[in-house]
Amino acid sequence: MPFISVRILEKRLNPESEQKLIASLTDAVVETFGAEVREHVWITLEPTPEHRWGIAGKPVGQPPNDPA
């Protein structure tokens, strides 16, 4: 059973984008492995708030020149 876990910034998701992402990822797996796997594809979306996602030692939502 293919299992795909997506970690993404919370603000990037809404009901429409969630549904589209799940459908697109499922379609990609089906295209690769065949239609018989569709019912066995699991997708999880793990939204993360900006203050809990860090890049280059700073939270994503923090301005680049902010020393905090």
Automatic annotation (TrEMBL):
InterPro entries annotated for this entry? 4-OT-like_dom, Tautomerase/MIF_sf
Listed name of the protein: Tautomerase family protein
Look up keyword Isomerase and say if it applies. yes
**Which residue range or ranges hold the 4-oxalocrotonate tautomerase-like domain?**
2-61
Q: Which Pfam families match?
A: Tautomerase
Query: Which superkingdom, per the lineage?
Result: Bacteria
Keywords for this protein = Isomerase
Q: Which residues cross the membrane?
A: none
